[in-house]
Every structure is written in C-alpha cells, then in structure tokens.
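Data deposition worksheet. Section B asks for the primary sequence of the deposited chain exactly as it was used as input, without tags or linkers unless they were present during the calculation. Section C holds the resulting structure in token form. Section D is free text for depositor observations; keep each observation to a single sentence. Incomplete worksheets are returned to the depositor.
Section A, Depositor: J.P.
Section B:
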Amino acid sequence: QVQLVESGGGLVQAGESLRLSCAASGRTFSNYAMAWFRQAPGKEREFVAAISRSGGTTDYADSVKGRFTISRDNAKNTVYLQMNSLKFEDTAVYYCAARSGATSKYSYNYNHWGQGTQVTVSS
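Section C:
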C-alpha cells in the first residue's frame, strides 16, 4: 500500500503559475507510475499528466500540453505538477494517483489516490 498526500493548491489569477506536490509513503515509490487527474464541479475526473517509474516517459492531456510539466524525485518520494499560464478552465480538485507498471490515462487503472488539492483560477 502507498499513501499519497497532495499539497500546493490555491487561488491564483489567470496567467499565473502553481506547483503541486504529491508526497508518497509506504511502498517503494520508484515501483509506481504516477499521474495527476483533476475533477471540476459537475464534471467527470479527467487525466492531466503521467510519468513513468523512472521519470523517463511523460504523457499529457492535450488541454495542458505546453503549459504543465510533470516530474518526480524518487529520492524524495515526490511527484510534482508545474502549472504555468493557468486558465479559468483549469479550476478543479487535482488528485495524485499511483499504479504499479506502466503509465495510463485511465483513472480505473490507478488503485492509489490522494485526497486532492483545490486549484482555483480567477479570470
């Protein structure tokens, strides 16, 4: 079992930046592919970004490509999401997720989740 705790959310204006962190504890962090998902009010949870166990492979949703960067520090058991040029439509609760094996864009493939952190972008 791996436990995930997100931090770094907040209220920002459109065009500004935020960096989310997700700290993992429990099992060996480097055994897990990691991802960020988000869920806006009244909408389904959607994929944002994923990173492989080594950090060598990343994947992004088209809506965030070029603006968001996912990274990880296996020595610190932490995955990050750097969010630049934030837009109003990025407003959501952001969740960190982990799974054994390869990355995936599908939330049902992840069996470890954090509690979420709220990101609000004012226009």
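Section D:
The radius of gyration is 13 Å.
The CA atoms of residues 7 and 21 lie 5 Å apart.
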